[in-house]
Every structure is written in C-alpha cells, then in structure tokens.
Specification:
This protein is an alpha/beta fold. It has 38 helices and 38 strands. The longest helix has 20 residues.
Length: 1070
Amino acid sequence: MPKRTDIQSIMVIGAGPIVIGQACEFDYSGAQACKALREEGYKVVLVNSNPATIMTDPEMADKTYIEPLTVLSLKKIIEREKPNALLPTVGGQTALNLAVNLSEAGVLANNDVELIGAKLPAIKKAEDRAQFKKAMEKIGQNVPDSALAHNMEEAEEILGSICVPAIIRPAFTLGGTGGGSANTREEYFKQCKRGLDASPVSQILIEQSIAGWKEFELEIMRDIRDNVVIICSIENLDPMGMHTGDSITVAPAQTLTDREYQLMRNAAIDIIREIGVETGGSNIQFAVNPDNGDLVIIEMNPRVSRSSALASKATGFPIAKIAAKLAIGFTLDEIRNDITKQTPSCFEPAIDYCVVKMPRFAFEKFPKTDKRIGTQMKSVGEVMSIGRTFKEAIQKAMRSLEIGSFGFDQQRQLDHQTLEHHLTNPSADRLWHLGEALREGYDIDKLYSLTGIDPWFLSNIELIIKTEEKLKASGIKDSEHMRELKELGFSDNRLAALANTTEDKIRAKRIAYNIRPVYKRVDTCAAEFEANTPYLYSTYEEECEAFTTNRNKIMILGGGPNRIGQGIEFDYCCVHGVIGLAKDGFETIMVNCNPETVSTDYDTADRLYFEPLAYEDVMEIIDLEKPQGVIVQFGGQTPLNLAIALEKAGAPIIGTSPAAIHMAEDRESFKTLLMKLGIKQPPNGTATSLSEAREIANQIEYPVVVRPSYVLGGRAMEVVYDDNSLNYYMTHAVQASPEHPILIDKFLSSATELDVDAICDGEIVVIAGVMEHIEQAGVHSGDSACSLPPHNISKTMIEEIKRQTTLLALELKTVGLINIQFAIQEEEVYVLEANPRASRTIPFVSKSIGQPLAQLAARVMAGKNLHELGFTKEPTITHIAVKESVFPFTKFIGVDTILGPEMRSTGEVMGIDKVFGKAFGKASLSAGTSLPSKGCALISVTDEDKAKAALIAGRLAQYGFTFLATPGTARVLEKSGIIVEQVMKVGEGKPDCADAVGGGLVDMVINTTRDKKAIDDSFYIRRNALMMNIPYFTTMEAANAATDAIEAFSHEDLSVLSLQEYYEACKNSA
C-alpha cells in the first residue's frame, strides 16, 4: 500500500526525562521516527520535556515543543497545531499513557486527531491486566495463575486463592515501578500497597510466582496487510524473578530447541493479531518451565519497547523507523532494508554472531538501599557487545561496563554460606560470584540449583574459568595459545593479570605474534547479502570486512554506558560532533558500546564500531583506521580517562590537549594557574591520611567539602561540619592514601553557584550561557535546578564571571568547549572547577540559545575558527529556560531524598517561558512535581533559614495557604503575623510532622536541615512526601522559586510555544 495522503501533520510524543525503566532508548526510537516521517514529507510536531535528547533538536521536527508531558499542555499544543494524527508508540510508557488519557478526555475526538501505530482498544487490551489475561485465554495461550485487585480488601481476598510466593505487577507503569515479589504475608501486603499506589489506575495483577523459569522476549512487527515478522529473539541469562531490564540478556536465544522457538513464534503472531496492534512493533515476554517446556505469556508492550533498541542494534533492523513507516500505511514488503539495500523489510533478520546486553547499576550512590535485584528495575544503563561466540561477547560486555573489571576478576574470598547467599539473592556482582563459585569447585548442577541459570550458560562460563586457571599455572605458551585466548574474549588487561605481567607487555607480545582483531559487519542476514553500512564489531578470525577508506577521517569516542553523572547529555554531544564534522567533509567514525543511544544508530556516523571503550579496543581501531584526529572531549570522563595513554601511543588527539585537561583536573597545577591569573578559589588542601585531613580542615575552618580525587558525579563527596564527622568520613566513606588523596575545600555557606559554558578556538572565547543554580552551594551542579539567564545575579557579577571564564579558557589553551563552575559569596567570585571539555549542560544551553554548541566545537577542533563559523558573540535571548533534575528515589526504598554534593539524578527536564516563575513551574511539572495553587504547607527549617521561611510563608498566605510548622519555626512565623498550627518534631511526640505528611494533611513541604542528627530525624518527612507525591523542598532557594511559580500561575494559565517561535522572537529583538 502507498503511504497515506489523507494526513499531512503528525504529532510525536517523547518519553520525557531519563528515569530508571525509561532511558535514552526512547530518544533513539523517537529520533528515528521523526526522521522517517519527515523523509516521507509529513509535518512533524514533537512534544517532549527533555532537553538532553537529539529528538528535541529543532531540526528534528517542523515544530518542537519542550513542554510538560501532561494532558493540559498537550491539549493546548493540539489546539494550536491541529495535527491529523498522533503516533504514541515511540515514547515509551509515558507517551502510551498520555495517548490513552487524551483519548478518554475527548481531546483527540474533539480535534479530529487519529491514533496511528496502535489504536486505543489495542493499547488497553495489552496494558490492562484483566483484558490481557482474557485475550490470552481466548486464543488458548497460558498465563500464570493470577487475579486482579483494585484495593487492599481485594488483595486480601486473593491471598486465599493465590499463595505466596507471588509477583505483584501494577498496571500502566514502566520499569516494573511499584512491582515486586512477596515471599511472606507481611511482604505481600506491603508490596500490594506499593503497587496500588504506583498504578495510575489503581490496579495490580497478583500473579503466582514462576521464579526460576527461563525468560524470553520476541520483538515482533506487523503491517496493515497482516504481514508479521519476528525481528529478534532475546533470552535472559537470569531466570524469572528479575526484571528483564536488570538481567543479562543474549540474542539470539541460545537454549531454545527449534520446536520451542516455533511454538513461541506462532504464539507471538497469534498474540499481536488478537491484541489488535495493526501496525508497528511490539515486545512480548514469555516464560518456559525448564522441567517440562510449558510456555506461559508474561506480558506484551504494544509499542516500541526498551528491548527494541537492543534488538535494532543487535540485528541492524531499525525497528522504530520501520514502525513509523508502517503507521503511515506502508507495508513491510514496500520498505527497503537500509543495510543491504536489496532485501525488503519483510525478510526476518538472521544473525551469525552472539550479542550480550549487560546492565550497569549505581548502588554506590544509594548505600542504604537493598542491593538485591528483583522485579522492579534498578539499573541506570547498559552496554552491548558482539562476538562470534557467547564466551567472547560476555567478556567484551564485562569490560565495557567501566567498573574496573576486565573479565572474571577474582573477588575477595567468601565462605561458602555467604557465597551461596549471593548466588541465590542476585545483585550487581552476580556474574563475578559465579566465577568465584566455579573456582571454588562448585559443579554445574549445584550452580543451576542455586541460580536457575541454564546449564548451557554455566558451562560456557566454566570453560572461561578453567582456561584462566590453566593460564595462571603455565602462562601463554605460544602464538596459537594466544589466539585461542583472544577468541575466547580475553582482554589484554585480563591476560596480564592472569600471567602476572603488564598490559603493555601482553599487547607487544600479541602484536609480535601478528594477532590482531578483524572486523565483521552487522548485516541483518547472516552474510547472505552484502552489507552497505559499515556497522562493525571485532573478533579474532581471518577475513576483515572493515574496508577502510583513504578519506580525511575523524574518530569520536563515545560515553559508554549511562550512569549517574554521565548520561545522555554526552551522547548528544557525540552525535552533534558527527553532524558538524560531516558538514566539513570529514568521514566520521563513532566508537561506543551503548545500545540505547542515537550515536550507535547505524546511520549517525559514516562508520560505527560497536566496541568497548577500553585502551586495547580503541587503539586497535585507531591502528586500523588511521584517522587524522581523535576527539576525546565529548564522551564525558570515559574517553578522557584514556586520553593520555592514547596520546602516548601515538593517537592524534585534537582539540584541547590531554595535558591541559589534566592541568585543570590536577589540584596543585590548577591552583598555580589560578594564582598566576589572580583568580580566587576557596581555601583548600590535599590529604593522604586522617591526621593530614584534620590539620587541613582546622586550618581552613569548618564546614569543609571532602571528596576523593578524580571522581565523576561528585562520587563520595560530602560536607562535614566538625572533627567527628570528618573522622567518620575518613574511616567509612573513603580510604585515603598517597595514591588516592582526599581533596578538602572550604565550604562556601550561603553562596550561589553558577555554571558557564563557553567555546574557544584558541584565539577568541565566546560565552554561550551563564546559568544560575537555584539550590545554594553544597548541592551537586548535576542535581541543582538552574536558570539561564541568571535571574538573581547583578550585571557586575556576571561580567566578572565572563571575564574570568575568558582568562581561564585562553590560559588552558582551550580548543573546543569549556565549562567553569563559580560561586559567589558576599560579592566575591570564586572558581570551583574548570573542565575544558563538553559538560552535561551543553544540550540545555544549546536548546536555550538556539545554537548547536557541540557541532561548532567539533568544527573548531578540526581546524575551523569561530569567525569562519559566524559565532563570535554571546547570543541574547528573550525567554528564560530552567533545567530541573529528576531522581530515582522511588526505586530505592530507605534512601534519603535530601540533596547534597554527590550527584544522584538520572535525568533532567526543561521549562521555558517568558518569565522565571512560569519557566520554573513548567520544569517542576515536567519533573513530576505539580505545585499546589493553595492548601496546607508544612514548614520546618534550620535557625538560619527561619527569616527566609517567614517571607515565603507571607507570600503563600496571600494565595490562601495555611501552615503547619514545628515549634521553633512556628514561633518565628507567628512573630511575622502568620497564622500557623504547631506540630511536633520527629522524635518529640505523636502525632508528629512526618505523620501529618503521611496522613495526607499537607500539600507542600519546606524542610531544611544541617547536622547529621537533624537529617536523620527528618528522614520520614521527606520520604513520606515522596511516597505521597507531595512537592517538597530541601533548600530555601528552591522553595522561593516554587513560590515564584505559584504566584506566576495564579495570574495566568500555562501557555505553550515551540522552540522555533522562541528563536524567532530572539531574532526579531536583536
């Protein structure tokens, strides 16, 4: 069928901020869909709240709205833009839920907007647990024994028919949010309550646990003519009982018999037809009883899913792009395969290699949380590796994680009881514990009974461990032995550890033996047709398919797996680097191992190497490709950690030199540079022992900020107020030594922090944006909300900050981007740190000012100057942009939500408007915090904040707010003429202020604390506010900004404008 001509304009809804369970896979799918629709001539209206994505670039859609993903704002956009259709299947669960809400509210019908890709009945049949179960029974497919509950009374009744252990699955949530397993009655009731609270429709499926069964997924597509293809089979290494996003997964499925696969395939086709997904992709999850082969259906996602990105990258089949084209009327046989250029998309992909996806966790950021992995997703990122065998692929995946491991590294010795506990209660280290058990002599049967992991996987891991033990005993014998080891996936680093030598010596020996990797192409068709797209992975065979060119080429090293502190913002910079370099005629080469991202799309760079970002792997590609330049400044800390070693090995690193980057990061070198320039920094010192730390802290005076050197995302950073706190930090949080010194800085109390992003070509510096942090100093810059331009800083101070930025950029011989963090305390400017590289704020600033900063920087690095690029002065804007952070606290029970110097946010949103209050209000709404227009505010603050609290309360009282306050705060409010009801502090009687929050008596919380006791005492205030979804503010600056927003929206409703319209207004005012 030809494409539809009865629709001209299509709205695409994005997934919003990066959260656990819904990450940048949906930037990848949304960006692909937008490109595909525009390619076919449709007007695309994009709505998303996440500025860090490629899909919110103004070039990706005809109209780009960075607005809250709510029914109200979408209704306003639909009324303005009048799209003919809405595509809800490429924005994760967020977009799907919004499509249902818009439809049920009558917004789509009233504006003649058609749902394409998935109709409302199909969405509801797949997402509503009761309808889905009924549909499966109708077509003769088994589901686990289950029952639905809408309240706790129903949950209690169900316990009579379904016994524990049970699985609780809330309806219409993502990443298993609110779900979990219950092994006792007590756990059951607790888990049911959490699930009901998490489900937007107050519905949970209570399912008989089938923990221990094997878990599989099929990615499937259907077109309007009922052609159905299976894109990829995926097998979880871990058995049922663990969320598939947290499991190690393998493609294609390895342990299914042909009969089992055909049964699963036929079931998937029956399911997509019965559910009624007319066009596009779906993901179906199955479980297989390992004892008798019984098959049950777990669930279906009637949309492009988290696994779709993995399946797309694993096979080379662009699921989201094809889904978008199917939604506008094409059929699978009419769409060409981009990789072969010969086969149509109705050819099911076949792959002759093994793909392993491995999750990356961030438990170190949440030390008090339960680290066991269950049905609620907890990982913050993932890596993918490709090898000819499972053994090769899994070892490549392990070193791709960037956790300091290069394979099955030996762990600290555990007694058998402890080891078996770890094996039966999996955590992020489960793979390494398996290795230890095999070293301890556990056989496959024993390990299978403890873990439920299929014996096929265990046997492969056993072979790796046995090979390691032989290697330890006898070393590397000859070139044939070396080749065998490399074919098994061993890294040079791991071989060096096992052979008790250095990585450089192993590399030299391997090169002397002429054992180098070859590169194979991902071709979708098991090499039956030639692949035109250079999408490559390494292996140790004979024939190399890289077919390098003699063009001028530049390589960009990506950011690896998402993690807290290094996320999608750096992938954004890498993609823009490619776009910029292509404009200047360079062949672009991308090296990365993250399957979620746009940078690893086969059509982003000219050549894509899906490889670990480790020294060995990167140097092999450099030796093969011989690029004219290598860019290390865009991928965050990952490529920077390799920079000096790569440069030493002869890699042509362009842009700011690794030596200059090191100078900015090295404490003593940077201090010398600042003194030379006459720029202030807070008094500081470096300690290698507790006694040195005490001496420095007393010399510069408490409070001080302490942190390990060379960390990302403020890892283990803390503000300490006295010797006792310092002693605790030095003995519990870190181990100081000459090799790992501790950095100690004077904490600038009540200071305002600012971030500056600038670009320099070695001659001139252009300030791109100055951002004022809304939270005061002490909250990590990645967690603080910020405003561009600043709204509380004098022009004099801003000009001084710009002057110092220019001095520093030139002194560091910056070529490309630089980010500098400042603090202002009592009209004095202090430099906190300088990073002559891309920062996490680059996408936000680029969207705010309408200039692609990473593109410009890449072109500068490759030889252009800013005059040639026409970017020589700071842009002026007529709007205000606010960046707000999004946190994963709901996933980690027992974790305090108070903000501090260690970064814990997973993503960000942007609010944009003509006035600060409305921009902040939009950002809060986008982050999931709906500010009340009236109601009761609980206020409990430190002595130094009480005067500010009285001013805020006075403003809120004008809009009808009433107040609860703890005794000390209440007295100050009463003196200011504010009517307030006193409530007990935590620990001083019942009912207390935490009970008031938990009991739903409060609509907003303002709670500041200082010392450890006060923080501990007020924990339940913040935790209850989080669980009740009540807006809470732990700094006075954030509370003040929220009050600005409440005032602004009391005068005028939420309004919407596209980025293109904001930019046009700036142009007209210039």
